[in-house]
């Protein structure tokens, strides 16, 4: 068996929006897609931030007008990303600080997202080999 990489368990496609998107539109899109995050992109598909359900709650707590406030005002920046070839164990180490990691190709464009839910599913899958045991 070989080591599992991010590309083996990441979610594709992911939801992307522009920073200028109003929070209410982002929340509606997240609800329709049944996801808890959206990657905020610029210049093609380069991640510039991430907007999560937690960010939406912060906006609600601030009593902002969701139709007049953009995701750019509440998104997390800078956004941490991983490569599809990153070993899953390395990505899991980053997940202590993040719940969602956009996956980017060699050009820096977003091609998927890795979530804590993806990691949990990989751990629960008895066929997933998290580390390379052939060299031990």
TrEMBL record:
This is CBS domain-containing protein. Pfam families: CBS. InterPro entries: CBS_dom, CBS_dom_sf, Diverse_CBS-Domain. Residues 10-66, 75-129 form the CBS domain. Keywords: CBS domain. It comes from the Archaea. The keyword Cytoplasm does not apply.
């Amino acid at each position: 068996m070989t080591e599992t990489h991010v590309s083996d368990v990441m979610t594709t496609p992911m939801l992307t929006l522009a920073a200028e998107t109003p929070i209410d539109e982002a929340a509606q899109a997240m609800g329709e897609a049944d996801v808890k995050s959206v990657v905020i992109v610029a210049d093609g598909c380069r991640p510039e931030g991430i907007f999560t359900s937690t960010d939406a709650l912060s906006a609600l707590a601030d009593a902002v007008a969701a139709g007049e406030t953009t995701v750019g005002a509440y998104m997390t920046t800078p956004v941490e990303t991983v490569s599809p070839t990153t070993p899953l164990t390395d990505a899991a180490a980053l997940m202590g600080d993040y719940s969602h990691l956009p996956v980017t190709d060699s050009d820096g464009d977003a091609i998927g997202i890795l979530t804590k839910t993806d990691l949990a599913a990989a751990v629960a899958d008895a066929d997933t080999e998290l580390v390379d045991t052939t060299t031990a």
